[in-house]
Structures are given as C-alpha cells and as structure tokens.
Write a structure and sequence with these properties.
The protein is built from four helices and twelve strands, in the order H-E-E-E-E-E-E-E-H-E-H-E-H-E-E-E. The strands form two sheets. Strands 1, 2, 3, 4, 9, 10, 11 and 12 form an eight-stranded antiparallel beta sheet that branches. Its EC number is 3.4.21.89.
C-alpha cells in the first residue's frame, strides 16, 4: 500500500512539474519571446524568405532595429525602423537624412554594390509621403531593406507603436545561416 501511495505522489509531482513547465513556456512565448517566419523578400539581402527568427516583445524600438508589426492588411510585417517620433525624414541621392543629418546604412552596402543603374531608394521626403513634416508622436517610420520591392511606410504610412509586436535580431533557422542581424 505504501508503495502505491509513493508512486501516486511521484506521478502527481511529475504532472505538476510538467504543467508548470507548459504554463511557463506559454507565458514566455506570449509575453516575452516568440518565433517568427520571414515571408517574402522585402528585407533582402539582410533577411531571406524562410528565415526563422526570435522576436523580443519587451524592448522599445530604436532607430535601425528590425521590428515586427501588425500591418493595416491584418498581416504581420517585418521592417527596419528609420524614423522615430518627431523625426524629419528625407532621402536624396540614395542617402538617408534624419533631421537634416546624413546617416550611413551599412546593411544596404551589399545591395547598392550590385546595382547597375539608378539608386536603391528613390528620393522622397516624409512630407511628400504622409503630408506631415515629422513622424507623429507615438509612431515610427519603417522601410524594408529591399527598397525597390518593399511595402513599407512609403505606402502604408507611419506605424503606431501600439502595433509593434517586438524587435528581432537573431536568425535561428536554417541552422547553417544562424546569425545575429545588424
């Protein structure tokens, strides 16, 4: 009888441990980290279609971070943060200007070196695209790294911070291509 009670207690302890582990994994996935699949080529050459990444849901987006957000069409998009609230954005001769200061975008160098004609990013100002001089409070301006083929803030406008799921830096699959994204 004592042996049966001991086995029953052991089974109950294992069941509790398993339930706690599953609940903890659920909380972590829902509130802290989650996997995401890159779908499409809008972030080439930085990210490829089919890359799997980890999204950190706890960070506030910073300039040049790669973020996932809920797009107007009801899909999740992955793009790079270019403009923060209050920023004045302009592109001229393939150079990014934020608040009048030129910024280098080393993540685009590979793409720019492959161009045979024209610029990677067409000239524009934030005002031409959105009608606003600056990125509105509580919003960000995002662009895909594949500037010629990306549906981003140039087409869908600025993104409310409330729509941002999180930031991502780590490609974990395919395993041979695992790396930290810059």
């Amino acid at each position: 009888m004592a042996e049966k009670t001991k086995r029953k207690n052991e089974l109950w302890e294992w069941t509790k441990a398993l339930l706690i582990a599953v609940a903890l994994a659920g909380v972590i996935r829902y509130f802290i980290f989650a996997p995401i699949l890159v779908n499409g080529s809008s972030m080439m050459p930085t990210l490829k279609n089919g890359d799997r990444m980890i999204v950190n849901k706890l960070v506030k987006p910073k300039r040049f971070d790669i973020v996932i957000f809920h797009a107007p069409e009801g899909k999740d998009y992955i793009k790079r943060v270019i403009g923060l609230p209050g920023d004045k954005i302009e592109y001229k001769n393939d150079v990014l200007y934020i608040n009048g200061k030129a910024y280098k975008e080393p993540y685009l160098d590979k793409y720019k070196s492959q161009l045979t004609e024209g610029t990677l990013t067409q000239d524009f100002t934030l005002k031409e695209i959105t009608g606003k001089e600056r990125v509105p409070k509580g919003q960000i301006f995002v662009l895909g790294d594949n500037r010629r083929f990306s549906k981003d803030s140039r087409y869908i406008g600025t993104i409310p911070l409330s729509k941002v799921v999180g930031e991502t830096k780590f490609v974990f699959w395919p395993l041979k291509d695992a790396h930290i994204v810059k």
